Amino acid sequence: MGGLFLIIYKYNRCLSLGNLRKLLFLVLGVCGICSHVFAGNVAEIEEHNREINYLKSTILANPANMEAKLKLGRHYLELAEEDRVARTRYSQEALGLFQEVLKSTKYVEESWIGIGEAYILLGNHEEGKGSFQKAIAYNPDSLLGHSWLFMACVLKHEYRTAIKEYLKVNEIDSKHARALLISMGVLTGIRVFMNFIGLLIVVGIVILVIRHKKRKQTAKLR
């Protein structure tokens, strides 16, 4: 499951950056074609630690700086992905920061998504799902919110809901929807992936049948 956490986080990071090329190399890395992608990146961890120290000093000077707390939470989540041993501690640190930012009524969507990510990393998929739903309630067109909710539903084997969320992601941005589906398929395992695809095909067939019937009815009216 650790690999799935990694692909979810890395996918959404690439999504927020709009960098599909980086995502492509990530998927190739999962397949073993570019295995060095997953080598321990010491420089990246050191960079996170430097940013964390800077943000902590910024917050110490101005405790009301919610943007700094939000950024600090994101860095803790990234460290949680890099360090499995300390994953729980970093995730809890991030969770506390996002909850604090949320109370200030600033960065509501970002806070709920961060809270959801932290819960997913802590293994609490139900709370994670609920948090992503709250992010979507705040912003119905949240691409990250729907992407994360899709992934949470896949983790919970709630495929019908996952399909609805996937279709919403596709409606917002079809390129990211395709990348998301590939990412999910690579690391959730062939059985889960095929179950999801099978259900998606059934839904597609039903939609086509309904459209065909509507066309026939329209033709008769003419």
State the domain count. 1
Kindly report the average pLDDT value: 77
Indicate the percent of residues in helices: over 70%
CATH architecture field: Alpha Horseshoe
Please count the beta strands (DSSP E, at least 2 residues each).
0
Distance between the termini: 56 Å
Strand content: under 5%
CATH topology: Serine Threonine Protein Phosphatase 5, Tetratricopeptide repeat
Shape: elongated
The CATH class label is: Mainly Alpha
Defining traits:
222 residues; mainly alpha; Serine Threonine Protein Phosphatase 5, Tetratricopeptide repeat; 82% helix
Quick synopsis:
By secondary structure, the chain is mainly α.
Word description of this protein:
This protein is mainly α and 222 residues long. The protein has a single domain (2-189), classed as Serine Threonine Protein Phosphatase 5, Tetratricopeptide repeat. Helix content is 82%, strand content 0%. The chain is built from eleven helices and no strands. It has helices spanning 2-17, 20-30, 42-61, 66-82, 87-103, 108-121, 125-138, 143-155, 159-172, 174-188, 190-221. Helix 5 (87-103) packs antiparallel against helix 6, helix 7 packs antiparallel against helix 8 and helix 9 (159-172) packs across helix 11. The chain is elongated, with a radius of gyration of 20 Å. It starts with a helix and ends with a helix. Residues 1-5 and 28-40 have low confidence and may be disordered.
